[in-house]
Amino acid sequence: METIKIGIIGHGFMGHEHETMLTQMEGYRVVGISDIDPKQLEDVKEGIKRYASNEELFEDPEVQVVLIAANNNQHHKLVLQAARAGKDIICEKPVAMNVQELDDMVRVVEECGVNFTVHHQRRFDPDFRTMKDVYDSGTLGKVYSVKSALYGFNGNMHDWHVYLAEGGGMLFDWGVHLLDQLLYMMPGAKLLSVYADVRNVINFEVDDYFKILMRFDNDVTAEVELGTYFLSDKMHDKWFERHWIMGGDKGTAYADGFDPEGKIVRTTRLLTNVGGQRTMTAAGPTRSFGPPSEGTLVTEPLTKAGTCHEDYFRNYREAYDGQTDFLVKISETRRVLALMEAVRKSAETKESVRFEWE
Ligand SMILES: NC(=O)c1ccc[n+]([C@@H]2O[C@H](COP(=O)([O-])OP(=O)(O)OC[C@H]3O[C@@H](n4cnc5c(N)ncnc54)[C@H](O)[C@@H]3O)[C@@H](O)[C@H]2O)c1
Questions:
Q1: Centroid of ligand 1 to alpha carbon of 75 (angstroms)
Q2: Fewer Cβ atoms within 10 Å of its own Cβ: the N or the C terminal residue of the chain?
C-alpha cells in the first residue's frame, strides 16, 4: 500500500488533531503544515515541514492531498487554490458557508480533475452508529420519531467561532454534524419540510441554541436540538453529552453519552384491551401515564457500535486506491448546506419551509 502524503493547512485545534492522528496511522505521512499565524507552527512535530505560506505548501511536489483545517470562511478560497495546484482535497466541515460557494468549488474541482471530499468523521461516532444500527435492523418496527440532542453548560463559544463572518456559531460547528448524521441514517428518505428555532441565548453575534424539526417522506419526524447553555444537574445521566430517542411501533430505543448507554424498551401490554389500571401520581389518578406497574416493561441491551474516527481515514485510504468509494460524497454535503439554509430561513420567518431537493 502506497503512503498518502498530506499537507495540512491550519494548525489550530483541528490541525493538531489531524497531525496527531495521521502521524500514527498506517498509510499516511504528514509532509508539512502551513498557517497564516507563524506562532501556530511552533509546536509542529519533528520531521514535518513548516511552510512559510500556503503557496509554499501548494508548490511542494511531495504533497498529494491537502487537508484544509482553517476557519470556515477560508474553505472556499483554499479549496480553489488547492485544486488549481493539482492537489486532492479533504476539507473540514462545514465544507462551505453556503450552497453557492460549494457549487463554485465543485466547478473548479471538476475542471482540475482532483478528488474532493469532506471530513465528516462523526458518521463514525459510536452513539450515532449504535442508533443507526437500531434503525437499519428494523427491530423497532415502523419508526416515526428520531430525536438527536447535545447539551452543554457554559455558552461554549471561543476565538473566531463568535463571529458570523468567519463562519462561527453552533449551527456551523455541531449542527452540520448532527444534520449530516440524520440524513446519512435515512439515505433514501426525502426531506419534505423544516421548522427551526435558532437563537443566540447568551452570545452576541452567533447562535448557541437550535431546535430543528424535519418531516421526511418515510413518515419520520426528526428533531435535532443543541444547547450550549441548557442546564441540568443530572451529571450522572451524561446530560452534558449526546442523547438519542427513537420511537417505533414495536418499541423505543434510547442512548445517552458519546460512549452510549441505553436500551431498547418494549411493553408487554401493547394493544391488549384490558381494563385500565389507575396509577396515582402527584397530579392525581391516571390510566395512561405515571410509572408502569411491575413487569409491564421489558428491555434489551443496545449493541454498542465499535466504530471510531480513524475509520474515516481508513475509508479514505482505500477509496484513494480505488478499492471503494469515498464515504462522504459532495452531493451529500450540498444537501446538508441546503438544509442549513432552510433552517436559517425558517428561524428568520418563524414559519416552516418546504424543502426542495436540487
Ligand atoms: N470535524 C470536526 O470534528 C471538527 C472539529 C473542530 C473544528 N473543525 C473544523 O476545523 C476548522 C478549523 O477549526 P478549529 O476549531 O481548529 O479552529 P482554530 O482557530 O483552532 O484553528 C484554525 C487555524 O487556521 C489558521 N488559519 C486561518 N486562516 C488561514 C489561512 N487562510 N491559511 C492558513 N491558515 C489559516 C488559524 O491561524 C488557526 O491556527 C473549521 O472548519 C472547523 O469547523 C472540525
A1: 10
A2: C
C-alpha to C-alpha distance for 125 and 72, rounded to whole angstroms:
22
State if residue 194 touches ligand 1 by the CB under 6 angstroms criterion.
no
Q: What is the pLDDT of residues 226-277, one digit of tens each?
A: 999 999 887 677 999 999 999 999 999 999 999 999 999 999 888 777 777 7
Q: Is the CB of 119 under 6 A from ligand 1?
A: yes
Dist CA 80 CA 109 (whole Å): 7
Residue-level pLDDT at 288: 80
Residue with cell 417522506: 217
Place of cell 438544509: 339
How many CA atoms within 13 Å lie on the side-chain side of 350? 0
Domain 4-119 falls in which CATH fold?
A: Rossmann fold (3.40.50)
CA distance 68 to 79: 8
Protein residue closest via CA to atom 21 of ligand 1:
12
User: Which residue shows C-alpha cell 511542494?
Assistant: 60
**pTM of the predicted protein model:** 0.96
Instruction: List the domain boundaries for the chain.
Output: 4-119, 123-260+302-308+339-349
Which CA distances in Å does 322 have to 68, 315, 316, 318? 22, 10, 10, 6
CATH level 3 topology of 123-260+302-308+339-349: Dihydrodipicolinate Reductase; domain 2 (3.30.360)
Q: What distance in Å separates the CA atoms of residue 79 and residue 103, rounded to the nearest whole number? A: 12
Q: What is the pLDDT of residues 271-316, one digit of tens each?
A: 777 777 788 888 888 888 888 888 889 999 999 999 999 999 999 9
Placement of cell 441554541 in the chain: 209
Sign of the torsion angle spanned by Cα atoms 166, 167, 170, 176: negative
Instruction: For residue 69, report the distance from its CA to the centre of ligand 1, in Å.
Output: 4
57 Cβ contact list (under 8 Å, min separation 6): 7, 9, 32, 33, 34, 51, 63, 66
- E strands present in 80-120: 88-92, 116-119
Ligand 1 pocket check for 42: Cβ under 6 Å: no
The grid coordinates of residue 65 equal 492531498
